[in-house]
Amino acid sequence: MTMTETALPQREATLPQRMGELALPGALVGALAGCFAAILAVLGGQTPSWAAITTVTLAVPLAILGAGYSLLLATGLFRPGVFAPAGLYWFIGFPLARLVHELGAHSILAGQLGMPKDPLAFLAFQALVSLGFAIGFLWLHERVMPRWLLRVYEHNSRAWNVLAHYLQLAEQIQEQRDRKQTRSRRGKERSLRERVAERQGGHG
């Protein structure tokens, strides 16, 4: 699909609806990432109640941060397919989400707030982990967001603007693939001609 083949929005939704639609993909990806905490907790031998608590206390902040990422993408501060802004965003956001997770889970299970024993070391370690999380988040977000925008762009002009960037990026990637395939094909043809010429020269 090209940008010229996609129709412009016909009617506009309300501002809260537009913002909610744009935030939804990131919120879903963030919440899904938080749900993996339940799987890890169960595999680690924790009780189902503890797994449920740790899932909620992690999924909620990650969903909020994921929604924020999608909204920043919609405003044009971030661009599709660019890792650096996402990496910086989660370098700050992921440690904060984990801190909220630790505080929330401890307050529910122990009945009082409890900071990690060494907060700075805890945050530093989570900042290192954030790189891997950012890669996974961006990979999944880049697959969810465009498909969702195709469903809502007709009544959401902001979604149309973001979708246009995704379509432009897709066209650029396709052009790069076509050029690479063309160079590869020409290289094979040149190599074949050289081998034929060598054989003809040998027979001569």
Report a brief summary of the structure:
Residues 189-204 have a biased composition (Basic and acidic residues). The chain is mainly alpha-helical.
Task: Provide structural commentary.
The termini are far apart. The chain has one domain (15-203). It is mainly alpha-helical and 204 residues long. The model is unreliable at 1-6 (pLDDT under 50). Helix 1 packs across helix 4. The protein has helices spanning 15-43, 48-75, 83-110, 119-152, 157-203. The chain is extended and about 90 Å long.
> What is the chain-wise order of helices and strands?
HHHHH
The parts where pLDDT drops under 50 for at least 5 residues are 1-6
Q: Give the number of DSSP strands.
A: 0
Number of helices: 5
Chain-averaged pLDDT: 83
Radius of gyration: 24 Å
Beta content comes to under 5%
Secondary structural class: mainly alpha
> Cα distance, first to last residue?
54 Å
Main beta-sheet strand count, sense and barrel state = none
Helix content: over 70%
How many domains in all? 1
> What best-fitting shape do the alpha-carbon axes yield?
extended
Transmembrane segments: 21-44, 50-74, 81-100, 120-140
Biased composition (Basic and acidic residues): 189-204
Keywords: Membrane, Transmembrane, Transmembrane helix
Region (Disordered): 177-204
Topology:
Elements: H1 15-43, H2 48-75, H3 83-110, H4 119-152, H5 157-203
Helix pairs in contact: 1-2, 1-4, 2-3, 3-4, 4-5
Short key terms for the protein model shown above:
single chain, 204 residues, mainly alpha, 5 helices, extended
